[in-house]
Task: structure prediction
Amino acid sequence: MAKIWGMYVGVKLAFELGIKKLVVESDSKCAITLTQKMSPEIHGNSSLIRFIKEFLIKIEDVEVKHLYKKTNFCADALAKFGQEHEAKIKF
Result:
């Protein structure tokens, strides 16, 4: 669920900032599959997945791809840092 939430926050932020070209990378094959191929109604987080899909459609050029966990170490470290310091970070 955390990977799906992270994807939602990132895609929403990209849309709100008016980013026209976006590459979404995740080490969660499940999150990639849910947002790219499967109907979200069969998943417990169907509303969140539907929102992600809606934002992805609104962005001009989007590439969504799976990364292996070792490759995604930096993003995981930043996500952990952000989660630990959430109250101090302002956009």
